[in-house]
């Protein structure tokens, strides 16, 4: 699809990747950009149409779909990370991450799919992570939710193909946002991530690996679990040493 003259809705538009997506959509000629956030007053980007949205609240998702029936491009960006482990961490925190990072995105897709069909098929972008494919102590709940979101993305892509909706999975390592502020490593600029994702949509791609880290991690998937974990340990040690 063509970003120019599209009508887009971006979740989590008040900062970080979501704000970068909304800004780049405007700069690339989108006719309208719905910028959403749980606290809509925190959206400060000129030129957008602001909507309140909590993707973990089905009633809020339904209200957003009713308020934006002209959407042709849905950017599922909003997400959380609680720093929770699976065995010893809070199960409520694990469930909260799943409700946001996977079920929240799925709920958005279910509500907006009819509008996308009416508006010519359009496209959906799910912002995932290289952590769709690997975990680590202190981040295994996040890994679980991103792996589940990856599987969900692959499933809905098949289900929505008949109505002509492109579903693009976007994977990245770390972006230069508040969520990654504590990591003293190279990070992709939010605007560069948004550009890579939107160019992928215009090219009709099912998957965008936005940085070298995500490309390297995916290349290791054919390894055995033991080989994969050893390779990731080496890669993480090298990353932290730079």
TrEMBL record:
Keywords: Oxidoreductase. InterPro entries: NAD(P)-bd_dom_sf, SDR_fam. Coiled coil: none annotated. Pfam families: adh_short (PF00106). It comes from the Bacteria. NCBIfam families: PRK08264.1-5. PANTHER family: NADPH-DEPENDENT 1-ACYLDIHYDROXYACETONE PHOSPHATE REDUCTASE. Belongs to the short-chain dehydrogenases/reductases (SDR) family. This is SDR family oxidoreductase. It comes from Streptomyces phaeoluteigriseus. The lineage of its organism: Bacteria, Bacillati, Actinomycetota, Actinomycetes, Kitasatosporales.
């Amino acid at each position: 699809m063509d970003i120019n003259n599209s009508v887009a809705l971006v979740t989590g538009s008040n900062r970080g990747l979501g704000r970068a997506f909304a800004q780049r959509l405007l700069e690339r000629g989108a006719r309208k950009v719905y910028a959403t956030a749980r606290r809509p007053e925190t959206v400060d980007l000129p030129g957008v149409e602001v909507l309140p949205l909590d993707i973990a609240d089905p009633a809020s998702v339904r209200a957003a779909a009713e308020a934006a029936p002209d959407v042709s491009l849905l950017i599922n960006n909003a997400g959380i990370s609680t720093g929770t482990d699976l065995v010893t961490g809070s199960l409520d925190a694990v469930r909260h991450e799943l409700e946001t990072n996977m079920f929240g995105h799925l709920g958005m897709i279910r509500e907006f799919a009819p509008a996308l069909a009416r508006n010519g098929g359009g496209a959906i972008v799910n912002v995932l992570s290289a952590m769709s494919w690997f975990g680590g102590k202190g981040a295994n709940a996040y890994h679980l939710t991103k792996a589940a979101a990856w599987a969900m993305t692959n499933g809905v892509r098949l289900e929505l193909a008949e109505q002509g909706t492109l579903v693009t999975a976007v994977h990245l390592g770390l972006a230069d946002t508040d969520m990654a502020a504590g990591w003293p490593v190279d990070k992709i600029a939010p605007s560069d991530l948004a550009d890579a994702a939107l160019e992928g949509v215009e090219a009709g791609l099912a998957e965008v690996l936005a940085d070298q880290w995500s490309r390297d991690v995916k290349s290791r998937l054919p390894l055995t679990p033991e080989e994969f974990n050893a390779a990731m340990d080496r890669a993480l040690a090298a990353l932290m040493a730079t």
